[in-house]
């Protein structure tokens, strides 16, 4: 909730058992600062009638009452609740002269208010402290079944993984409570000193995990997913309708690289807002046809050329796509979502050696929380002789950082998910260990063992095998 604007009319879920008629209190109203405390119906524990309590910001002098004013009134004022919101002094006035209540006894109002308020406070405290199985048995039971399903079955989905306990702990932590729109050191909310530390640590671990120097590469760890990370890159660099070229979805590319059906239906927002023209694998071999890609790219002249995909079982020829991007003047982007674990451990060729921008999911091979990440080049450009200037090549330095960060926030996202960023930092710390390299090497061996077993049983694998963690089994003959 942003209360920093001048027009701060808002409602709180607040309960009160007073009658609605408030005695007029001498006060000086402050323009646009009147606040109405509304009763949230779910807050009521009894059918008693609750009415909204108009709440006003009081100026200091209002609180100063003359000595000679009646003592009960003064006493009542002490009972008023004073608090501050975003630096504004606020006062929750209590009902003073309800004739009905006064008629009942000398001080019945206090008793009723306190009992009621106390029981509601107790209820709120109890909600806050309840474990899931008590707070919501229905959800708890379904979650438990899903846990059994995950642990008792065999999961062979190449895009999924199991996070470690530490990642899970960070995900389910108090970090979810904090708003921190902006970047470390430049947030829109106060109280972000620790969130800044977490995000900065995550950034330095991301660079470290992929062996990148901070003067040559920057990284944004805020995207909620890889689809939104990719869209942020397009938003940063393209005007609506400008051109991108990525691997066709039926050839193993991802929809966020701009998919249209053969009938022309635009499936992803990428193809709705930008123009996309895909390249394909050779239908006979299953390998990417780089020569055809070059021909297409030179005709189409995309502003961004995308490599990387969702179901391509072979290593990418990054030097070759770099050459094509340079020839047609495109920015080269790799979506390494599926192979980021292999990239980090140098178990496949390295997109960072050749690309301008590298995006990834964080929840596949990296074993982190669900999310996206964008690496972008910074600093002076390395110019190679004989290469055409790319669309973003008008200066001697990369200008990707500001554009990409701005596209993530405020263009496409709001507050970053700080629990996810902490969880990602934990995962990236593990990615940089020798144990993680051993894990990735074993994963490759497992994929190759499965490929060999299937080939022995005369199954047809697209491209005849795998260089990475996934295989593509051609089921069309079945
Ligand atoms: C290459 C590639 N890019 C992007 C995505 C989308 O990731 P997310 O689900 O985080 O949006 C995927 C997901 O499978 C993918 O394989």
Automatic annotation (TrEMBL):
The keyword Transmembrane helix does not apply. Pfam families: SHMT. Keywords: One-carbon metabolism, Pyridoxal phosphate, Transferase, WD repeat. GO terms for molecular function: glycine hydroxymethyltransferase activity; pyridoxal phosphate binding. Coiled coil: none annotated. Its cofactor is pyridoxal 5'-phosphate. One of its GO terms (cellular component) is mitochondrion. Catalyzes the interconversion of serine and glycine. This is Serine hydroxymethyltransferase. It comes from Raphanus sativus (Radish). The gene is LOC130507820.
